[in-house]
Amino acid sequence: MGSTYLRRLHEFSLVTDGEDGLPSIYDWRRNQQEEWNWLSTIPGLLAAMHGVILAIGPHAPPIAFSLWIGGAGLSVCGLFTVQYFPIIAFSITDKDMGSLVKNNNDIINITLLASAIASPVVIALWAELLFVTGMVDYIIESDLQGLRYKVFAGIPLCFGIITVVVTLIFGEMVDRRMKAKYYPQGTPTSHQKTLVKDE
After folding, report:
1. What is the pTM of this model?
2. Please, which contacts does 85-92 make with residues 24 or more away whose CB atoms are closer than 8 Å?
């Protein structure tokens, strides 16, 4: 996930030095803010889901209960993170933002910046994984008044898990092929950026 955001920052830095540098920076910041806006709803929803499921009866098995508590806390941290970024970014000018995304800038390491921007997405994915894992443990360990009810609960959950796994596999395949097509030698360095601009 961090490498995806790192590549996005590299691609963004390529257009910051052109004639449309400042407008491009403005567009990128607006799109990033829109991403943070919709992303902020996910940790809040996950925190609510974890909190509600902790109240179900009968009492959840210890593993499921601990996973849901951990997921609730993680979701709240993700909500804080995704709301904190716009506050910090608001005081940064477009010109300074263009400098931040360049390699070897004197403000912050570009890899650390990409990892920080990716952290809300990673937190959301982790919280979702904890929620689903807790559901699996709950179905396995709880009585549910008989095996057939475990089957009723397990079939849609298994279908959902399989769908997610297949989606991730296809997503990674497409991402790897796109990187191989446009970056055959890896993420462009500062030297490669200069060559691209000269062309």
Report:
1. 0.73
2. 85/36, 85/116, 85/117, 85/120, 86/33, 86/36, 89/29, 89/32, 89/33
pLDDT above 50: residue 194: no
Alpha carbons 94 and 29: distance in angstroms, whole number? 8
Tokens 């993680």 appear where?
A: 74
Can you read off the two tokens belonging to residue 197? 């601009």
Let me know: does 138 contact 63? Beta carbons within 8 Å. Answer: no
The number of residues in the chain equals 199
CB-count burial class (<10 Å; 0-12, 13-18, 19+) for 154 = middle
CA angle, corner 57, sides to 55 and 60, nearest 5? 80
Q: What gap in Å lies between CA 103 and CA 163, rounded to an integer?
A: 38
Mean pLDDT of 57-68: 83
CA dihedral 184, 185, 188, 192 (to 10 degrees): -110
Dist. CA 150–CA 138, nearest whole Å: 10
Mean pLDDT computed over 145-163:
88
Question: Any idea what DSSP says for residue 60?
Answer: P
Contacts of 165 (CB under 8 A, 6+ apart): none
H/E stretch holding 127: helix 110-141
DSSP string, 22-44: HHHHHHHHHHHHHHHHHHTHHHH
